[in-house]
Amino acid sequence: MKWTKQGHEFDAVYKTMQEKMEFYFFGAGDYGKQFINIMSKEITIKGFIDNNRQKHGEVFVGYNCESLDAIDFTPKKTGIVITVSQIQRGAITKQLQANGYVHNQDFFIIEEFLSIYFVYKYNQVYFSSISFLPSTACNLKCRACLNFNPYAKQFYVREWKDIKKDIDLFFQCVDKIMLFHVSGGEPMLYKGIAEIIEYIDHNYGDRIDTLRTVTNGTIVPDDSVLERLSKCKVEITVDDYREAVPQYSGDFSKLIEKLQKYQIRYYINKTAEWIDLAPDKTDFSHWSEEQLQKHFDECCQAWQELRDGRLHSCNYDAYATVAGINPEPDEEIFDLNNFNDNRKKEIVEFRLGYNGKGYTNFCKKCRGFSEKNQYKGKPAKQME
Questions:
Q1: What are 49's strand-pairing partners?
Q2: What's the farthest any 2 CA atoms get from each other in the chain?
Q3: Separation between Cα atoms, residue 50 and residue 155, nearest integer Å
Q4: How far is CA 325 from CA 11, 85, 280, 364, in A?
Q5: Which pLDDT does position 372 carry in this prediction?
Q6: Count of alpha carbons within 13 Å of 276, Cβ hemisphere only?
Q7: CB within 8 A of 273, min separation 6: which ones?
């Protein structure tokens, strides 16, 4: 979105939220569970809505779950918060709109609701998530890598002093965050991964709902690393790429055994297909400002990268710049060094997708992380 009322974009939205006396959460899953933990003492929760018929009539984390048609919705009094992932929420948004519900009037998006509520009511900056990369180094060469590693001439590896500086600066500006995500590259290849997780957890763990890192499932860290991670409140996403790289199947099994041995929380992520942002096949440079703004607004990516004291408006724009394939490195950043208490609403707006021109330069080369992007591929398919 393009800034038009910088620092005041959500004034009317918060007023509408205040008028609501009760809320349903649309999505009885992990997001819904996490949001309940944060908001149960803040607002009146009527229950959950879910499109999975098997969940209808069931109790989820203490609340009844129903279909959209079965809820008791009173206009102006009742609100709905969509609590599902970015890709899933597109269909739900269309479903609600088809039934006459209006965005930011009758229903809200989880990240927007969370950040707007806390900055307006408590003057606190509460982020939904941030992506933090100590390194882009990876042992795989995935054709549709979202870090664009196959295009990069060399890996980007950060020094510890710069990593620590970014973490400290971030938490000087942000009061709380749902998900602090240490990503890559392959984080388990970074020699200081345990030190990073320890530092974040020990210094800022009480301000993080979920501290997470990820691995492609092909690297078995040393026991000394796992021992240190076991003492931190961290969870690890283990991507299951065994079909694409069967030569690593044994390492995948060893990794799971090790995680279980050290009682480190993990979950296995296995998806049917990947979205390919297809920067080598895309040229939207002829598009108008309005077309690029619409393209940016319709993209389902909800991540921003923290790097060098800045928040980058789109993490994929930032990754493409590091990889050397972004022809116009973007100026749409929020410099945390210039943050002060008077800019709390502004930083929230930036995190929720507002910037100076309403898109990033990489939008001209990117198909977008959305259902409209027809470029799909098998997960972790390797470059030949």
A1: 26, 66
A2: 57
A3: 42
A4: 38, 28, 9, 12
A5: 85
A6: 17
A7: 376, 377, 378, 379
Confidence at residue 371, expressed as pLDDT on a 0 to 100 scale: 80
CB atoms within 10 A of CB 206: 9
Distance of CA 123 to the CA centre of its chain: 23
Identify the pLDDT of residue 260: 98
CATH class of the domain at 126-377? alpha beta
Contact 268, 238 (CB under 8 A): yes
pLDDT at 271 over 80: yes
pTM for this entry: 0.95
Question: What is the Cα gyration radius of the chain?
Answer: 21
C-alpha distances in angstroms, 230 versus 194, 260, 295?
10, 10, 42
Residue tagged 């999505």 (tokens): 27
pLDDT at residue 177, rounded to an integer: 97
Among the four given CATH numbers 3.40.50.720, 3.90.110.10, 1.20.140.10, 3.30.70.20, the one describing domain 11-121: 3.40.50.720
Average pLDDT score over residue span 269-294: 95
Residue 194 CA to residue 246 CA, distance in Å, equals 27
Give the pLDDT mean for 307-319: 95
Separation of alpha carbons 104 and 325, rounded Å: 36
The amino acid at residue 179 is: L
Nearest to 60 by CA among 46, 72, 41, 74: 46
Give Cα 330 to chain centroid, integer Å.
20
Residue 13: pLDDT band by 50, 70, 90 thresholds?
Answer: very high
